[in-house]
Structure formats: C-alpha cells, structure tokens
Design brief:
Blueprint (H helix, E strand, L loop, with lengths): L1 E10 L5 H11 L3 E6 L5 E7 L1 H12 L7 E10 L8 E4 L1
Enzyme class: hydrolase
Family: Belongs to the acylphosphatase family.
InterPro entries: Acylphosphatase, Acylphosphatase-like_dom, Acylphosphatase-like_dom_sf, Acylphosphatase_CS
Length: 91
Amino acid sequence: MKHLSMQVYGLVQGVGFRYSVLQVAVELDITGTVQNEMDGSVTIEAEGEEMKLYTFLQKIRESPSPFARVKTVDYDFSDNLKNYKKFSVTG
C-alpha cells in the first residue's frame, strides 16, 4: 500500500471533475479524498496498491471529466498511510 498526494491545475472546478475522480477511485479500489482549493486547483489524497495508484494518476492526467482540462499534476508518493476507509468528495 502506498499514499499518493496530487495537486491538479487547469479547468478542474465547476465541471464535475471531483465526482469523476471519485468514480475512477471506486473503480480502482482506491481510498482517499478529493477537494477544491481556493486557488482553483484540486487536491487529491489517495491510497491503494502501487500499480493501481499509477493507473489512477494517469487517468487524472488525462482528465476523467469530459468538461475538465487538466493542465498540470504535481504529485508525490509516500509510505505515510492515513488509512482512509473509502474515497470521498470534500470541500
């Protein structure tokens, strides 16, 4: 199990992006959170099997929402697990 933190920039608010992220996370059996930030970006905290997290990252880069436009994704993998029980949309 690994932890993946992401900051997603582009047109990612007000276009259904967070709920598309939730759908992808559920499909890949990933837990964590996704939330909007005041600067217009979206923060994602995700945990799961390492290969599934790489797939998740790729899907986020490609934008799971047809209305969103992902410009940049800053990310970091770590072993510091927060032990989320499910994936949820917050903020």
